[in-house]
Amino acid sequence: MIYDLIRYQFVDSQTSSMKRENVLLVSLGCSWGKCAFCDYQDDKSSSVLACDTVNKKVLSEVRGREVGSDVLEVTCSASYTELPFTTINYIRETCREKGIETVILEGHYIYRDANPFFTEFFGQYGIKTVFRCGVETFDEHIREDILHKGLPGVTAKDIARHFSWINIMFGMEGQTLSQLEKDIAIGLNYFDRVNLSIYTTVKNGPARDSLAINEFYASDLYRNLKQNPAIDIYDEWDDDNAHKVGHDI
Ligand code: SF4
Predict the structure, then answer these.
(1) Among 24, 27, 35, which residue has the most ligand 1 atoms within 8 Å of its CB, making it the best to mutate?
(2) Is ligand 1 within 6 A of the CB of residue 35?
(3) Positive or negative torsion for Cα 138, 131, 32, 210
């Protein structure tokens, strides 16, 4: 079912060192579909026409050079490989019309072999592609036994061969600040950019550890990460934006 969601966001220099526009598009559905923390995969349609209709409308909000941005970040309820090809075409046309020079595509590691085709497709218009992958944590026990991420035995080095941005998640029961520190250190060592999402509870998913999240916000680690231009922090539940971090769309 296609949800009524905020699907366009302009990320300004207040919350990130990289000014960019974000769109949240509707996919045909995530074929992995097992991640324990994920509820957004339900925002989908098996109809290409339905996906395209919504996605075209969302992409019409992209302003590119008008707002001084030449980067478009594309997320969806699955991986970029699970958007209709017609939507991929709209993305490329939008980039061309609005002066977007870099498109960021997010997806699961299992689709890594498709990346060169996307690079070539966007490259035909001189648009650079950056691939972003969700690992959530490099602690394999939490990632595979609890989160069911589907990356058994996959190392940071393996992912970095195909993706240059990495997503890390913190705030689930069982996660610790020291593990987060390790995750961030590995992330910065292997990837150009780290997106750190603070976990928000999902139905039937892991519990949120509010104490650990408060501890994070009170820590030197948080203060250091805020100063690091290679890191974006997102917290959907930071309603009053007390921490001046980004909000996921
Ligand atoms: S791969 Fe992505 S969309 Fe699919 S279940 Fe996992 S987090 Fe959700």
Answers:
(1) 35
(2) yes
(3) positive
Q: How far is the CA of 36 from the centre of ligand 1 (A)?
A: 9
* pLDDT tens per residue, range 10-48: 998 877 899 999 999 999 999 999 999 998 889 999 999
- pTM, full prediction: 0.94
Using CA atoms, how far residue 172 sits from 67, 83, 96, 185, in Å, is 36, 29, 40, 19
At 204-240, the pLDDT tens digits run 889 999 999 999 999 999 999 999 999 999 987 766 6
Phi-psi map region of 29: left, alpha, beta (phi>0 left; psi -120 to 50 alpha): left
> Phi and psi dihedrals of 151, rounded to 5?
-130, 50
Domains in the chain, CATH or no CATH each: 8-234 (3.20.20.70)
- 160 Cβ partners below 8 Å, 6+ apart? 190, 191
Half-sphere exposure of 105 (CA within 13 A, CB side): 30
Which single residue is written with the structure tokens 């001046």?
A: 244
Q: Which of 25, 26, 27, 30 to mutate to test the pocket of ligand 1 (most atoms within 8 A of CB)?
A: 30
In eight-state DSSP terms, residue 24 is E
